[in-house]
Amino acid sequence: MKNTTTTVSNDKFRNKWGFVISCIGSAVGMANIWMFPYRIGEFGGSAFLIPYILFVLLIGFSGVIGEMAFGRAMHSGPLGAFRKAFLLRNSKLGSLIGFIPVIGSLGIAIGYSVIIGWILKYLADAATGTIVSGADPAAEFSALARNFGSIPWHLAGLILVLICMSFGISRGIERVNRFMMPAFYVLFLFLAVRVAFLDGALEGYRYLFQPDWSAMANPQTWVYAMGQAFFSLSVAGSGTVVYGSYLKSDVDVVSSAKYVAFFDTMAALLAGLVIIPSVFAYGMEPNSGPGLLFITIPAVIQSIPFGRVFAFLFFLAVLFAGATSLINLLESPVEALQSNFGWSRKSALILVGALTAGIGLFVEGDILSPWMDTISIYVIPLGALLAGITMFWVCGKNFARNAVQLGRARTLGRWFEPMTKYVFCGVALLVYILGIFYGGIG
Fold first, then answer.
1. Which pTM does this prediction carry?
2. Exposed site from 112, 158, 247, 338, fewest CB < 10 Å?
């Protein structure tokens, strides 16, 4: 470690759209693909969309813009941003609490890297035709998901992501997202059209969109809609703050957040339009989590015409979504080492990659699910809550307004302070408490 002085990188996103697409890549991930379609069917079909979209708007136009502007105003990711914010109040507490979102980001990245390895293995199986060979999908996944069961694929996926990150922000992260995210939408749109022609797909559409208005009287519908929106938009006090620190001063973060919220929701709906109708077309039960992607979908693929092509395009799109999210998760600890301890990007990537791989090997198998649950329930929403409190309360009067106004032609309305200081911080606190009570809501 060379020093403890925050250094500002000159490597930034080229423009607004590079930033927006990268933030969309951060947000679009497994929550959109293996959880949202299940939640929408479980809690009232299209009726679930009403509270979900409400929370997307509330969180998008408060927490997301806050984290973007926080990173840009402080010219730093969470570690430096929290420290600078608390120094405004002559407190050194920020140096301590800034580690919480960084640890949360690294913790989720460790588990996420295992899942990327699974996706890479299924993509390879699709390319070779193994996935349509008639083998039992449950047995195949069980072998892969056992302790130390996916080491080569796990490491290969992580190394590919680290190589992409090694090129920096504009030539690495931005360029990868500019390719992968449009490709994700094109591939899923193509698959959604293909699925629409399957016999029996109509039942899947009914499951997704037939409204059960009574579900809106169920408090759990609102709780899980809030959790789904919160985690899907990737507010955690880490990744969005980091990307914000690479953002130029002439970019309107309110407009940027609008696009992120819209395309993240579109990704979730597209995933539902591909997965659920295909599951119903072949008489299978929809579920959530890894079982949906790695057991149910492969079973469907074995029956679907041109299943090998379907499988390759499907897992390629899922790989793009997962890889762009993992890049964002890993960037938080990498940036912390670079900006706050003077490490080179290469050295930071090697250390973070080694930690992710070393711990991840022991997380494979039985520990993965409780590991991910613990981080997502106790650490991620706490990081988001602390970022909200710091940005909207600790930094003082007008700090947040001025930070968000930077680069924006229209003046922020009076809605800004109540929406950010009270609504977002209140929602983040509720997500934290209810997540513990329900054992996870996102």
1. 0.94
2. 338
